Amino acid sequence: MPDKQLRVLVVDNAADAETVRAMLQKGEGDAFSVHIAETLLAALDALARDSYDIAVVELALADSQGLGTFETILRHAQGLPVVVHTGTSNEAQALAAVQRGAQDYLIKGRMTSQALVRVLQYSVMRYQGMAQSVTPIAAKARVIGILGAKGGAGATTVACNLASELKQQSGGKVLLLDLDGGATSAAFLMRTESAYSIADAARNLTRLDTAFWNAVVCRSANGPDLLQSPGVAGFTDAPSAETVRHVLRFARGMYDSIVVDLGRLGPCSLALLEEMGEIWLVTTKRLPEMFECSRVLRKLVEMGFGTNRTRLVFNRVPKLDSVSSSDIEKALGFPVFATLPECAREMDDAYANARFLDKALPVRRQIAQLTAKMLGIEEKPAPKGMLALFKFARA
Fold this sequence. Notes:
Layout: E1 6-11, H1 14-28, E2 32-37, H2 40-49, E3 54-57, H3 67-77, E4 82-86, H4 91-99, E5 104-107, H5 113-131, E6 142-148, H6 155-170, E7 174-178, H7 185-190, H8 198-203, H9 210-216, E8 218-219, E9 225-227, H10 241-252, E10 257-264, H11 267-272, E11 278-283, H12 287-302, E12 310-317, H13 325-332, E13 338-341, H14 344-352, H15 362-375, H16 384-394
Parallel strand pairs: 1-2, 1-3, 3-4, 4-5, 6-10, 6-11, 7-9, 7-10, 11-12, 12-13
Antiparallel strand pairs: 8-9
Helix pairs in contact: 1-5, 2-3, 6-15
């Protein structure tokens, strides 16, 4: 009998999963704690939220069929031994799963409680021995969500510039994930063209590997990779938050930083907030945006995104601004992280000349400073000669 209770994730239809639970209880009593997931998506959610010692997986589920079920579990399990438990019609696939990394396979109706217990215990022991020689999994990417308090606040512009600056200043791999509904603004700003989007990745969770990812992601001319919004395929149904969540979790193992353009707060973005390390809430000082900003801030604080995880960013602030940041902070009861200047004329000129992310634009320069601060990079002082020349020019 093991020293500790083994946590088992059983991925199967309710009836067969309960049969496994009953057999384990009969064989070893309290030696096993069983959690049941009836679909692949439910299993991925369980793996993301809790830790398990072993998974028992049926290959034929309501939302996934065949070896893809096992391979998807394996990619998301991050060091979890898997035993395939399936019917006689899938025995050949079960054997193929063992050849691809499963610890063992069991055929339904052909085992006793003692045999099931023994297979699970031995599989855990064998896998623990193998895991000692495996290189630890790299740390997950920093994920920054960009949220617009209201449509037209400029959240996509902030997201594109931030992702580009993160790529340039950190030198790491950066992904811009566009979830702004049916819009295609990120693709427009990043100057990418592709027929693929986040919807393609979400529809193909069982095929989601490095090769598939490289086929759907865009390599932008401005540095970061871009996974486009569903809007590139026209006005179609957006993928569910559940599938997008697992696409994001897959991507976290491939990048150093991920910037997610969440659009406005809605059912999908709300469900994905738990995946964000921090939120940049972008607004302007116009009254309609301020009103919405106050509502969104209350919701974020309610969900645990206090001042340590929420960055309040005011965009398009005019040079002659009559409302100070301290006045805003008093009104909202929340600190202002940054103010980005109004530069409509410069932006229009940049759009007209396809220089959407020009480093000379005031917005880009300000975001470059914020990125450097976030990364802990000190700004290099200007050469003394240049400072003297600047002073002379102003005199």
